[in-house]
Amino acid sequence: MFPLVFEYLASAHGVSWDVVCGRQTVEIYRMLVACAIACLYTILSEPGVHPFIEIQVRLKLATLLSEESVNWQEATKLVSRGTTLAKSYNYYTLAMQLKYASVKAMAFSPGTSTKTTLTMLDAYVAESQALAEQSEDATAYFSFMFLKISVLFNANTLQEANEGIRQLGFLQEFKGKQDNVAHLAFTMHALKLFQLGSNNADEILNFLAQAKALETKQIPLQMVYMRVIYEILILVELCDYKALDRAQDELFDVLQRQQEEQGNNPWVEDTIDIPLEPFIVAGGKPGTLQMETSTLQSKTVVVSWISPSEANILAYLLAGLINLRIRGKAKLAAHLLQQGLAKIKAELESPPELAMSLRTARAHHDRLRIMQCYTLLLLTLERFLASQWTDDAYLKELLHTTRQLPANFADMFTPLTYYLSGAYFQASGNMHNAIQFYLKIREHPCVAPTSGLYIIATINLVLVLEGSQAQKYNNFEVISKMEEQRRDEDDGGSTGAEAGRRNSMIKEQTLKGAKSNETPSAYYRRELLRPVCATHASPMVQWALQLLDAVYDSGPRDHNKLAVLVQFAVRLDNLQVGAVVAGVAGHGGGDMTVQDRERLARRGVADAEQEQSALWGWMNGVLLENLEREAGNMEAVQSRHKRNKQLKKTVEAQLNRVD
């Protein structure tokens, strides 16, 4: 039906990748879509159009306007008129399809609340259930219930979502899809618990185990793949080496199955909307996941499946993360990450096998760029961990790629690239540039003063200002002038009265809070105590200050000390590299109880013993000693204190070592 319409759309979708990559203008795409829409409006304007045809045209138009033009109001009008027409001619199935399109568009609409969407969904669920009981056709009921479950999951209403899953139990004719729904329920519940800060790893892994038990040939490979992904993310946090090895093997096995079973179990979208969230996500509050990677800033309930090529790249990224962050196998991690990076570049340079809408193409392109940034960031860390401070190729590429990200992801990556740039300049002896990058982090609008990245940047400022070249910067006048110079560069070198007033204000703000005759080093060191003293949730901050104390007297030796600092940060979830892990895993800070801290510390001590890391053992040991002292367990305190003193001597020797 409507061959000319589909021809125009096929032509538009054929150029979408070139539009996204800048090889074609967006006007051509819009013109082709507009022609398809115009064809449908022409059919509507013809006299004597059969009602069945008119309803189909309105349904197709509403879908196009929602997906291509983002014209919710017009789409709603078309659906409303089509629904009235369908009812009057007893086209009940079409009426249900139109209502589904209407509420689906409402769920996408930025101006509609979740409560409003659910109210309408409840009405349609009741109507479709009555229809199912009369005609024994539960297709519409299944679709509405599934959409409702999707909305509930996205609203983090887990109990109601699982009640919706239970209500689908009577649909015997949907037995195959029921397995899909149950698998989805277990997987999504596990993910949501993780997102919401649950510390009950056993409960989360139990949900994933129940999902795995359902994995037969009828379960789409995408769902199996995402279950494995979520399991890996949780195991990374638990530092469970053996389980991670098994999960990593399973990850690549799924990808191998995808290549072998393309005919029997194709990697395509199912006919129902399965709300599996893309892996790389950002935005919103720290520690939350949001699915949106396109221009639609809304509570998306229809998910764009990641392609097989994206899944393959993601597998290499995760394997690199595991080997770098958990297992300490830097060379293997670098090899895996380099393979993933090569696949990303090949994917960006060649058009996708399947034509896609502009929105889908942008989401695909964004995901590739985001994975490219994560990969480059981990490769940069691997070089720095190996004290290869002259190898800045990955850092330069990361800085360039970050500029090509969507705004919400750029806000997340830019401060991280600032930190790595500051560390690079600090280690290579360019203290002027190092200070500028650390100051950039401190004033970035997306970096809160209580965040780990802000604090670690301040720590590095102190290290620079107390180092061998500190005398060059040991007054606030120099810092202030550097601020003025950098902001002039950011503003295109503006001059005149306005620039003068701005620079005076910058100087005043820079000096604000400093005591007379106080050095920048002392000022920043004193400033560090503020977020720590203000009921800061993260023990990582305490550890960072302990590390600063350890190197305070001797002053930093650039290469090895910075390498240890970065390695230290890799191990801590809430510091600069931890921000990446938080983005990957959806794991946020949140308020931690004493039990949470103790569990974390004991896990860290055991981890350190296995890795023979004195630094990691000392930091966790200090935390555990303080917690045991609070609990009044003095016998354990004495034993722990003795061990911590031994570890601290080893740490100080490592930090002061010069090769």
From TrEMBL:
Compartments annotated for it: namely:
Nucleus
Q: Name one GO cellular component term.
A: nucleus
Residue ranges, annotated region (Disordered) = 483-517, 637-659
Grouped into one coarse class, the protein's main location is nucleus
What are the entry keywords? Cell cycle, Cell division, Chromosome partition, Mitosis, Nucleus
Coiled-coil stretches are none
Q: Does the keyword Nucleus apply?
A: yes
Record GO biological process: cell division; chromosome segregation; mitotic sister chromatid cohesion
Q: Where is the composition biased (Basic residues)?
A: 639-648
The entry sums up its family as follows: Belongs to the SCC4/mau-2 family.
Q: Protein name, please?
A: Cohesin loading factor
Question: Organism classification, top ranks?
Answer: Eukaryota, Fungi, Dikarya, Ascomycota, Saccharomycotina
